[in-house]
Amino acid sequence: MIKEGLLLLVLVILCVLGYALRQMFLGNQESLEHSFRWRIGLSILLLVLVIVAYYAGWLAPSAYIQFL
Questions:
Q1: Is the pLDDT of residue 28 over 90?
Q2: 59: which DSSP letter?
Q3: Kind and range of the H or E element at 38?
Q4: What contacts 20, CB < 8 A, 6 or more positions away?
Q5: If you average pLDDT over residues 17-21, what whole number do you get?
Q6: What pLDDT shows up at residue 68?
Q7: Please, what is the end-to-end C-alpha distance for the chain in angstroms?
Q8: 35 burial type by CB count under 10 A (0-12 exposed, 13-18 middle, 19+ buried)
């Protein structure tokens, strides 16, 4: 469940990034800044959720990562 939620959050971040790219080409500076603020906030939220999920035991590194 947590992995799907994190994946959905990544997809939302990518959608906001695409929206910002569209606004950049249109020259809408105010909307561009607003979407970048959203992307930064969502990226910070994603990082915090990954850290919390790791320490709560909801996420674990794969066996391949442990041997690197």
A1: no
A2: -
A3: helix 29-56
A4: 32, 35, 36, 39
A5: 93
A6: 57
A7: 27
A8: buried
